[in-house]
Design brief:
Layout lengths: L13 H18 L1 H6 L1 H30 L3 H33 L23 H8 L4 H6 L3 H17 L2 H26 L2 H16 L2 H5 L1 H24 L4 H7 L1 H10 L2 H14 L4 H14 L2 H17 L6 H17 L6 H13 L6 H5 L2 H27 L8
Helix pairs in contact: 1-9, 1-13, 3-7, 3-8, 3-9, 3-14, 3-15, 4-11, 4-15, 4-16, 4-17, 4-20, 11-16, 11-20, 13-14, 13-20, 14-15, 14-20, 15-20, 16-17, 16-18, 16-20, 17-18
């Protein structure tokens, strides 16, 4: 597999550099907390630089992918339907796993209900479905892109790609050439930015350790530990799926180690998108599949988040003394399954989903403050699983629909 490397062949692989940066960041955060807070802007600059290229990359790659598939709308429809079936199946399994782990470990037993964090202002407590579907259609695509709104950008790119496919080649080819140039330029820019990842990761992790400390982690260790057990189980399930597809799980994880480590350290799926797309394409998956599945999955395939949401709600329900009977568990399952998708384009989506489910359960939304203090530690793990889940989705859909597909016009 072709890897994105930093300059100089004597340097270790980038994923190993990032791992070293992560370890150094932990040490620096513990030993020099004031210095760690001072270098936080380094990590912030890295995240902003990655986010800078996400929208143009998504627009160019999705438009090109849809354009190349535009001559076969039947195949496009099948792949889209299969993608959503996969997304909902994976989410459902994650939710059930979260409920099951709570039944086994009962992390709320003996936990004192002391607020450890602040509730975000204007946190939504329900999904406004009319607004959700209307927000998919941008009334101003430039404003949507400027606001870093992935789903409206994705919708416009799909429509634009289909329209280009129906336009004569004489008119569409110049536009396609420009989009191909934009996409390749974004990949080159990604290589330059990602070369600074080890330093940025060290700064981010040092800041997290210095500001979050270990007291909150120890106070909620049972909840955090239970979550990571669940995330490990999901990784095992993914490993089995990879094996069934005739690939080696450890080799697959190594290939996507860079986006996984970036997801863990930054707790942001968006930051990993450019390098994730580049790596998957370098393994032989056509751009038209990667460009269609990954942006869609980053918005709708949130396996780690689904596990966290169901586990957190069960934890809070037991902490408040509410028995988790059959109807209560069914409410958690159905509400999480729906809200997990309905808030895909909402800031602080996981907390919004928690607010929606808590409202449905009759629990006070203020209960979110109980786990807000350790949310960062859990966010790092669930984001990593979200990213790896999208890797699996791309591999599965490529196996089902990608044979014979190439990026040739």
């Amino acid at each position: 597999m072709e890897e994105i490397k930093s300059s100089g062949s004597k340097w270790p692989a980038l994923w190993l550099q990032i791992l070293i940066g992560l370890i150094l960041g932990i040490c620096v955060g513990f030993l020099w907390p004031d210095f760690s807070k001072a270098i936080a802007p380094i990590g912030t600059a890295f995240v902003k630089a990655i986010k800078m290229i996400v929208i143009p990359l998504v627009f160019a790659s999705v438009t090109l992918g849809i354009y190349r598939m535009g001559s076969d709308l039947k195949q496009l429809g099948k792949m889209g339907a299969a993608a959503f079936v996969w997304f909902y199946a994976a989410t459902g399994i994650s939710i059930i796993l979260g409920i099951g782990l709570n039944e086994i470990f009962h992390p709320a037993a003996g936990i004192s209900l002391e607020a450890t964090g602040a509730i975000p202002k204007n946190l939504a407590t329900a999904v406004n479905w009319s607004n959700f579907f209307l927000d998919i259609i941008p009334d101003n695509i430039v404003a949507a892109m400027a606001g870093q709104k992935i789903i409206p950008t994705l919708f416009f790119a799909v429509c634009f790609g289909l329209s280009l496919a129906k336009t004569g080649p004489e008119l569409s080819k110049p536009v396609i050439k420009i989009l191909e140039g934009v996409m390749q330029a974004m990949f080159k820019l990604t290589e330059g930015i990602i070369a600074t990842a080890p330093v940025a990761v060290a700064a981010i992790i040092a800041w997290v350790v210095a500001t979050q400390g270990t007291k909150l982690l120890l106070a909620m260790a049972k909840l955090v530990g239970t979550l990571y057990i669940g995330l490990f189980i999901i990784m095992l399930i993914f490993a089995v799926l990879v094996s069934l597809m005739g690939m080696r799980p450890l080799e697959t994880i190594k290939k996507v180690a860079e986006p996984l480590l970036l997801a863990f350290t930054t707790a942001s799926s968006e930051v990993t998108l450019p390098v994730h797309m580049r790596i998957l394409e370098s393994t032989g998956i056509p751009n038209r599949i990667v460009a269609f599945i990954l942006p869609l999955g980053y918005s709708f395939n949130l396996d780690g988040a689904a596990l966290y949401q169901s586990l957190a709600v069960c934890f809070l329900a037991e902490a408040y003394g509410i028995p988790l009977t059959g109807p209560a568990l069914l409410t958690i399952l159905v509400t999480t399954l729906i809200a997990n998708k309905g808030t895909a384009n909402v800031p602080a989506a996981s907390l919004v989903v928690l607010a929606v489910i808590l409202t449905a359960m009759g629990l006070p939304v203020e209960a979110i403050a109980i786990i807000a203090g350790v949310d960062r530690f859990m966010d790092m793990g669930r984001t990593t699983i979200n990213v790896f889940g999208n890797t699996i989705a791309a591999l599965v859909l490529y196996k089902l629909f990608g044979q014979g597909i190439s990026d040739e016009a």
